[in-house]
Write a sequence for this structure.
């Protein structure tokens, strides 16, 4: 059986058409079937790319304190300065050295190491609210030997404490100092345990998770709720989202952009 | 050379024969017996006894409050007894790492008969089974397993969505 050129082109053209139209045909016959199986529970906040904007024009010291307190509360973050029982009292040097922090304040010069000469002098005396930057290219994820820390499709760099072996490679990898290691059992230093979130054990690293557990319940991150508008959280990939709007309106800076990790926490100055 | 080889063992066949004797037999066997006694001594008190399996008390206030027809776990009791650890691991994977399955956070557990639960050890399991010492620890001690769930997970739950 022979096939002439005309016949060959006709058949391959039909095959190409079928191949290109395959998914469309599937969608036409059974719409939504492919996506339906992968949906998360209703009521959860979802995004293509979560991002945080800290509006330094609105943020004052009291608000920053409130944000930090809200985060510490809902994540059962230990305060080594205030043990439940005096017998767990620690040396002041140790409390500072072993501090667990998810969100904290730092002076401009420590937060933004490269000299940004274009910024007004006022900015260079501000205390910035720092947290995990949920980088697009997170070095902590690359160095983790157990994949305990991983980047979700919506941009959140999350931690699986169950899998963390406490090697602290991620702490060495993170250029933002956003990670803390549990040198001791944190329970005796959590005054008022919040029942909606576990504590940690000695031997794991922890950090800000953009409140992944709260997003799943349809709630904004704790710091954003406590900030009264000084912090904005939203989907960077969605037009007209609050983060996009505020970033288009004002000039913003990010920490250590030159390192190429593409941090996703923006500071409006 | 050849005349020295007497048999298949070659030159070594001619070595002086040493009398075969078991030196210090009474010390060796005596020591062995003492060693074995010491090893098995801790087992002696329980010898011949059967330790009964612990009684699980299921009458926590929350369970008491439920109507009789609702008094069932997320899965049948027998299945739970054998597989609860695997189920908790699955829940954990779904809640923390479900991104690998394409959805960021699967917190809902749907039972085969269609009931829906929040996949949470503290807020679902221990909500009904609030008697952790009775319900969890007793059996774990009996079979000598030490799960480290409660190193992090709290014993008392709820107030999940509280803000400050």
């Amino acid at each position: 059986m022979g096939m002439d050129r005309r016949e060959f082109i006709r058949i391959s053209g039909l095959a190409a058409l079928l191949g290109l139209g395959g998914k469309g045909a599937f969608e036409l016959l059974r719409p939504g079937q492919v996506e339906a199986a992968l949906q998360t529970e209703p009521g959860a906040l979802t995004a293509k790319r979560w991002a945080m904007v800290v509006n330094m024009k609105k943020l004052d010291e009291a608000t920053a304190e409130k944000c930090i307190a809200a985060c510490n509360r809902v994540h059962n973050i230990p305060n080594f300065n205030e043990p439940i029982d005096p017998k767990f009292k620690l040396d002041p040097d140790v409390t500072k050295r072993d501090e667990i922090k998810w969100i904290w304040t730092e002076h401009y010069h420590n937060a933004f190491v490269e000299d940004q000469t274009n910024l007004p002098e006022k900015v260079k005396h501000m205390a910035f609210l720092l947290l995990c930057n949920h980088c697009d290219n997170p070095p902590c994820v690359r160095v983790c030997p157990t994949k305990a820390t991983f980047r979700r499709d919506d941009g959140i760099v999350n931690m699986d404490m169950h899998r963390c072996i406490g090697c602290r490679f991620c702490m060495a990898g993170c250029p933002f100092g956003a990670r803390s290691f549990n040198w001791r059992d944190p329970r005796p230093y959590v005054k008022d345990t919040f029942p909606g979130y576990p504590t940690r054990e000695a031997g794991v690293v922890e950090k800000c998770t953009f409140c992944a557990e709260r997003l799943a319940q349809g709630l904004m991150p704790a710091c954003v709720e406590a900030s009264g508008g000084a912090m904005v959280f939203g989907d960077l990939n969605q037009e007209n989202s609050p983060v996009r709007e505020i970033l288009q309106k004002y000039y913003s800076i990010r920490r250590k952009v030159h390192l190429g990790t593409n941090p996703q926490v923006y500071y409006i100055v | 050379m050849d005349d020295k080889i007497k048999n298949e063992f070659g030159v070594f066949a001619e070595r002086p024969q040493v009398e075969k004797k078991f030196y210090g037999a009474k010390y060796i066997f005596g020591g062995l017996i003492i060693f074995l006694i010491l090893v098995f001594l801790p087992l002696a008190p329980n010898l011949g006894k059967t330790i009964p399996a612990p009684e699980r008390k299921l009458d926590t206030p929350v369970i008491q409050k439920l109507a009789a027809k609702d008094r069932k776990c997320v899965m049948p009791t027998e299945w739970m007894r054998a597989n609860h650890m695997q189920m908790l691991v699955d829940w954990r994977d779904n809640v923390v790492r479900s991104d690998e399955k394409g959805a960021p956070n699967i917190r809902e557990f749907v039972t085969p008969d269609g009931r829906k639960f929040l996949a949470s050890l503290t807020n679902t399991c221990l909500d009904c089974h609030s008697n952790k010492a009775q319900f969890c620890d007793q059996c774990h001690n009996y079979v000598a397993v030490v799960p480290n769930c409660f190193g992090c997970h709290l014993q008392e739950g709820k107030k999940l969505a509280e803000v400050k």
Notes: Chain B has two domains: 2-46, 61-151.
